[in-house]
Structures are given as C-alpha cells and as structure tokens.
C-alpha cells in the first residue's frame, strides 16, 4: 500500500494514521456537540436504528470499535451486554470515560486499540460494531479481517457510516451544505475548520454502498447487506461470520 486517501489528498499510510490521530485529538472535546449541529440531531436517530439492528442481548460480548465517546456503547450496554469500547485515540477515550462517569454508566471496558491490529484473542466477541469510524482507518481491508478474526462463529458485524445518497436533489443540497457550512461550523464551535473539512472530504472519498459491501464480503463475511438511510447518505452494513 503506497498511498491512501486523507480527504482529497493521497498520502503515505503512516502519514494518514498520524493526521487522523491529530484530527480526533483536536475535535474530541466538541465531537458530540458537533455531531448534533452538523446533522440537526439526526445522528441520534441513526444510532438508535443501528443498535436495534445489532440487537444486543444480555450477557453477550460486544466490541465497539472507534467508539471513543461512548455514544454507541452506552446504547448497547443498556441491554445488559458486556461492551468493550475500543479506539485508537486516547483523547476520544478520555471523553467517553468522563461521559460514562457523568451519566453513571458502569461496567464498560475501555481499550486503546488499532482496528488493523487488535490485541484481542480469536473468537472473543459475539458482535463487532463500528459507527462513523471505518472511513478513518488507514487499511480498511485489514480492519475488516481483524473484525472477523475476533468474532465467534455465528458472530455479527455491523457498520454505520456515511455513504453517497441516491436522491439527486437531496444529494446536491447536502453536498453544498457539507462543503460550505460544516467547516464553518467547525471553526465557530470547535475552533478547527481544517479537521471538519477533512471529515467531509473523507466521506466523499469513501466507497459507495455496493463497493463497501464487496470489501466486507472479501474479508470473509457472509450474508452481507447494505441498508440505506436517507437514500444512502448514511448506510448500515452488516455481515456474519459462519
């Protein structure tokens, strides 16, 4: 792998890893507020729909990758599942731990992990979730293979990620909003215009729903599905380890 995308740039893999780390360290403290502002609160509904699809059950082990601030993990844990929150960025994990303390949410495990090289043993988890994180991974195929490795036989993979909407008028409107307004909101709220410009560019460079589904299947998952939200602006991809 000679070059990978960092927004609209092509950079060396190690450079992307470094830059993505800097982006999330910069935005960690305002990450959830910015999600509310950028999506008009819709991200909460998307996450609720995502967790319903996962169907967490009491007692099962779930790995929530790139879950630093805890938004998905808190919802999963409400079912009684044993949730491990993993993230490569310690600043994001620190925000999540503080939020868990503030809301009185106990029992979560927190781990600093690289999605491409997980420290967990084979067949450790019943489910693997990743929400709005896979497009920031340097080597996505490697991360997908690792997801399959740490899942038990019969384990399920679920990914919530931005994609490209198929609604023509809405697609044009969203593109204008995201390119022009999101960096400005980032500048005003997070004091970081460049990081939010990168996040929008990373969405534009991410594979569309069929292409990403093929990547999941290539990693060895079966029964791969892609379910669009808002015409594909956001998508839930899933697969099973059989």
- The helix-strand sequence is EEHHHEHEHEEHEHHHHEE
User: How many strand units?
Assistant: 9
- Strand % is 15-25%
Q: What is the topology, as strand order, of the major beta sheet?
A: 5-4-3-6-7-9-8
CATH topology: Rossmann fold
Q: What is the mean predicted local confidence, pLDDT?
A: 90
CATH architecture: 3-Layer(aba) Sandwich
Number of helices: 10
CATH class: Alpha Beta
State the distance separating the first and last CA atoms: 29 Å
Q: Can you say what the CATH homologous superfamily is?
A: Vaccinia Virus protein VP39
**Structural class based on helices, strands and sheet pairing:** alpha/beta
Radius of gyration, taken over Cα atoms and rounded to an integer in Å: 17 Å
Q: List the domain count as a whole number.
A: 1
Instruction: Sketch the major β-sheet.
Output: 7 strands, mixed
The gross shape turns out to be: globular
Low-confidence stretches: none
> What is the helical fraction, as a range of percent?
40-55%
Key attributes of the depicted protein:
Rossmann fold, alpha/beta, 10 helices, 242 residues, two-stranded antiparallel ribbon
Task: Lay out the secondary structure.
Layout: E1 4-6, E2 9-11, H1 13-27, H2 31-39, H3 42-54, E3 61-65, H4 71-77, E4 82-87, H5 90-103, E5 109-112, E6 125-131, H6 140-150, E7 151-162, H7 168-180, H8 182-190, H9 193-205, H10 209-218, E8 222-229, E9 234-240
Parallel strand pairs: 3-4, 3-6, 4-5, 6-7
Antiparallel strand pairs: 1-2, 7-9, 8-9
Helix pairs in contact: 2-8, 8-9
Descriptive notes:
There is one protein chain. By secondary structure, the chain is an alpha/beta fold. The protein is 47% helix and 23% strand. The strands form 2 sheets. Strands 5-4-3-6-7-9-8 form a 7-stranded mixed beta sheet, sandwiched between helices. A two-stranded antiparallel sheet has the order 1-2. Strand 6, helix 6 (140-150) and strand 7 form a beta-alpha-beta unit. The longest helix is centred in the N-terminal third of the chain and has 15 residues, at 13-27. It starts with a strand and ends with a strand.
């Amino acid at each position: 792998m000679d070059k990978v995308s960092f927004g609209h740039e092509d950079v060396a893999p190690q450079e992307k890893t470094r830059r993505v780390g800097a982006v999330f360290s910069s935005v960690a403290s305002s990450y959830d507020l910015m999600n509310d502002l950028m999506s008009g609160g819709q991200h909460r509904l998307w996450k609720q729909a995502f967790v319903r699809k996962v169907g967490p059950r009491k007692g099962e082990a779930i790995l929530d990758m790139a879950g630093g601030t805890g938004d998905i993990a808190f919802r999963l844990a409400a079912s009684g599942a044993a949730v491990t929150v993993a993230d490569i960025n310690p600043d994001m994990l620190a925000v999540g731990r503080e939020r868990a303390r503030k809301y009185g949410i106990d029992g979560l495990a927190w781990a600093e992990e690289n999605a491409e090289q997980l420290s967990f043993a084979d067949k450790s988890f019943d489910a693997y979730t990743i929400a709005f994180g896979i497009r920031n991974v340097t080597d996505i195929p490697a991360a997908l293979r690792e997801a399959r490795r740490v899942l038990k036989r019969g384990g399920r993979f679920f990914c919530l990620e931005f994609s490209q909407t198929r609604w023509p008028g809405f697609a044009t409107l969203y593109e204008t909003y995201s390119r022009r307004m999101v960096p400005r909101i980032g500048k005003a709220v997070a004091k970081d215009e460049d990081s939010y410009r990168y996040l929008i560019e990373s969405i534009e460079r991410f594979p569309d729903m069929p292409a990403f589904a093929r990547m999941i299947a290539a990693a060895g998952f079966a029964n791969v599905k892609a379910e669009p939200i808002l015409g594909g602006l956001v998508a839930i991809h899933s697969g099973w380890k059989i």
